Amino acid sequence: MTKTKSLANHFSASILSLLFGFFLFVIAATSIMQFERLEAQLREELHVEAFNKLNLINVELNSLRQIVTRMASSQLSINGLIDLSHTYFHHALDDITHLTAVSDAQAFDYAGEPLFGDYHAPPAWYNASLVNETLSTGQGTVLFINGDFFIVEPIMYYGSLQGGVIASVSAEELIKRVFDNPRYSYSVSFGNHWKYSNVNSRSDGVTRTMVAPDNMHISAFNTSISLIEPYSYLLKGIYPWLISFIVLGMIGLLPVIFIARRIGLKMARPITTLAHNVSEGNYPIISTSNANEMEELTMAFNLAHGQIVDANKTRVETERLSGESRLLAIVDTVADGIITITKQGHIATFNPAAEALFGYKRHEVIGKKVNILMTESDSDSHDNYLSNYLGGRPAQIIGVGREVIAKRSDGSTFPADLSISEMHVAGERMFTGIIRDITQRKKDQQLKREFIATVSHELRTPLTSIRGALGLIIGKFDGQFPAQGKKMLTMALRNCERLTLLINDILDIEKLQSEQMSLNLTETNLNSIIRRSIEDNEGYAKHHEVTLCYLPGPTGAFVNADPGRLQQVMANLLSNAIKYSEKGENVTISLRRQNDFYRVDVCDNGTGIPTEFHDRIFERFSQADSSDTRKRGGTGLGLAISRTIIENHRGEINFFSTVGQGSTFFFTLPVYAAETATLPTNIPVVQSEDKKPSERYQALYIDADNALFHDINKALSGFCNMVYAPSIEAAKAALSNQTFDLIMMDWQLNGQDIPAFLYEDRVSQTNIILLSNDPPDFFLPEHISTMHQKSQLNINALKSEVRLILKNRNIREAM
Question: Which of 227, 466, 662, 783 is a plausible cystine mate for 46, CB 3.0–4.6 Å?
């Protein structure tokens, strides 16, 4: 159980979560209550403030009216009406605008005409309609028009109306005087058509609106005021209290956490003890807790353990009996003879197939020396070999199949395949031999040899004579035959040549597979071989209206090879490329060097090879389409022969093809030994390609022995470039030159620090497959994808596994 998932931690976390949730709930509830309390308090403050501001506006406007009223009733104003020189009164009007909130003032006579025009023009706002009411009633009045108050007061002389004074007061200036340095955002409205707001006014917040009461003069103008306080003001009032509450709550949670942790540990201790006893196998388990649940859990574990033990015993016994039955059934029904002997050479087991082979019954041979099944010569050497092997000499036939002569009970002999393996039974060394009668196979091989000899003597020789005679007749009497007759002779000659080619291919592949064909190896220039092959096939190419193009490589491309057999390979590849190319197309031949190998490519733009046929292209009598044999000719043996020839030269042959775009066949041959001696050997590299390098994966193979490399390289050549390195130093040099998608290596490289190499940066970021005969004796890092035993390696399974590893590497990089 990990610490982060323990019951104590889980219990503590649960308690803490509940307390924390409750704490948040309390904070939220009290914050809301505090918010509502502050909001109610603020609304009351705004109500009082709104009333005060309305009263101030009313008082300010009344004060201005009183000033205008006193001026209109003063002796100065009466004298000003009769002062013909207009010396004094206009100065009083100027003073009232300078000393009060009055923005402008004008005197007028009993007819409403403005006075003192000699000193200043009447204001633009003045017109007789403003004073008509006062002139008609003799009473002062206050008007509000388009954002301005107009205070009109009459001038009376001995009870007679002689004129009056009108003053203009800006409502905006009046409001600004009242709201000097306001704390709130506000707006003041007079009627439904005029409103003034300060620049900080906004709609979000606590708002209080009040209409001027009837006892105020400004109520006649439907005056209202709105005060707005943003919610941030309330939050500022809550913050100090909230922070203090949170700090105190967190301090209070600390002892609760400690107590919950202690309780959780106490609850988890019996479970931890139970888990320890289960993992250690300390059965029967005794409960260390008095809790009913723990006692029931302990009893359940003890009961389950007993049932598992009983079930395992039953299963093991059943599997043993079943395995013995299966093994006996296999041994008794297998077609091959299986014989087991002791280290003294006495027969221990003898299956029914062995009884049929040797003519002995089981009871007749059990306990007797195995020599009774051997010829006299083999019997004499068997005992010496067995004693030498048991004495410590190296094994010579164990694990290796070989042909022997076996002897039946009646003294007759027969050829047999024999394979021997060693095993240990109850601490005793024993040997098992599997023997198969190959009498029929020997007869078949003899028949095949006789058939090949017959084909060579009885068919090839007459066909050669017939072909020569037909060629002579067609050449000498060309103009003496009718067209139909010449056509029939030409057809007969072509069929003779086709049969001759088939017979020659059959003879060649038989010799190659039976290793009876000898190679005349000599220092050979590949350039010369290719040019000669092109010349030999030029006529065939012209007949098919195909052009042969050669891209020459190194002039001194020397290999150790049989020139005749290499020309045979080139002829097979060129004839196939020509046959499967359309008229007017080109067949390109190229030569290049790849480190210690020369590579020859033959590329055509023909129909291509279907993907499902790629695995069988080098088999005998194989063609991608059976109809091609009739349409284009050929025996289906050329590629099989070519592969055998190239492999006997220690080279490789392969191809890549796309349906509808053509095919490229290529083979590689080792550079001549005298030339390779001058090459650097620190990083020997062999690469194989079947499509553009940018589209292929790169793999590094590290092993001191390159025997397995060629098989793996051949299997993966369809989608992966293989680079071979014989040591860790060579591998490091290869890694410094390029990036690899996969590394395959043998960890048993003598004198090499394999663990350190595996943890290097460039290596740790690459998928690795280990190949060895023994498991590694060090801890494997996480980037080791898989490991295979060399002696039991399945190449096809490895190929599928490599494809899967490389495919998964591409998905992670896309993401």
Answer: 227
- The strand pair at 547-551 and 586-594 is best described as parallel
Among the residue ranges 33-42, 92-101, 151-160, 660-669, the one predicted with the least confidence is 92-101
Report d(CA 766, CA 314) in Å as an integer.
47
- For residue 312, how far is the Cα from the chain centroid? 43
Angle of the 461-476 helix axis to the 483-513 helix axis, nearest 10: 150
Taking the C-alpha atoms of residue 372 and residue 331, their distance in angstroms, rounded to an integer, is: 22
Would you identify the CATH topology of the domain 64-170? Beta-Lactamase (3.30.450)
Q: Which residue from 674, 680, 652 is spatially nearest to 665, judged by alpha carbons?
A: 652
Show the tokens assigned to 80. 């000003």
Note the pLDDT tens digit of each residue in 377-408.
Answer: 787 777 777 777 777 666 666 766 778 889 89
Q: Using CA atoms, how far apart are residues 559 and 674, in angstroms rounded to an integer?
A: 9
Cα torsion through 770, 776, 779, 782, rounded to 10? 10
Q: Whole-angstrom Cα distance, residue 757 to residue 777?
A: 15
User: Shortest CA distance to 652 belongs to which of 606, 706, 584, 579?
Assistant: 706
Q: How far apart are CA 97 and CA 81, in angstroms?
A: 20
Average pLDDT over residues 107-119: 77
Segment holding 547, helix H or strand E: strand 547-551
Q: Where are the domains of the chain?
A: 64-170, 281-329, 330-441, 446-513, 522-670, 697-813
Q: Which CATH number fits domain 697-813: 3.40.50.12500, 3.30.750.24, 3.40.50.2300, 3.40.50.300?
A: 3.40.50.2300
List C-alpha distances in Å: 108 to 69, 95, 161, 631.
Answer: 14, 17, 11, 128
Other CB atoms within 10 A of residue 201 CB: 14
**Predicted confidence band at 635 (pLDDT cuts at 50, 70, 90)?**
low
134-185, pLDDT tens digit by residue? 888 888 899 998 888 999 989 887 778 888 889 899 888 888 888 887 777 8
- Angle (CA) 189-191-197 rounded to 5° is 15
- CATH no. of 522-670: 3.30.565.10
* Distance separating alpha carbons of residues 224 and 226, to the nearest angstrom: 7
Q: What is the pLDDT of residue 79?
A: 66
pLDDT of 432 higher than 90: no
pLDDT digits (tens, 9 = 90+) for 672-703: 865 443 333 333 333 333 334 445 788 899 98
Of 291, 272, 273, 262, residue with least CA distance to 12: 262
Whole-Å CA distances, 152 to 71, 163, 533, 555, 646:
11, 10, 128, 124, 127
Cα–Cα distance for residue pair 557/282, rounded to 1 Å: 76
Whole-structure pTM value: 0.36
- The conformation of residue 458, written as its DSSP 8-state character, comes to I
Structure tokens belonging to residue 537: 């096939």
Do the domains 697-813 and 64-170 match in fold? Answer: no
What pLDDT is recorded for position 545? 92
What would the two tokens of residue 96 be? 């009232």
Contact 291, 268 (CB under 8 A): no
Q: Are 131 and 108 in contact (CB under 8 A)?
A: yes
Q: Which fold has domain 330-441?
A: Beta-Lactamase (3.30.450)
Greater pLDDT, 42 or 56: 56
Peptide bond into 284 cis (omega under 30): yes
Contact in structure between 110 and 131 (CB atoms under 8 Å): no
**What is the C-alpha to C-alpha distance for residues 224 and 654, in angstroms, rounded to an integer?**
100
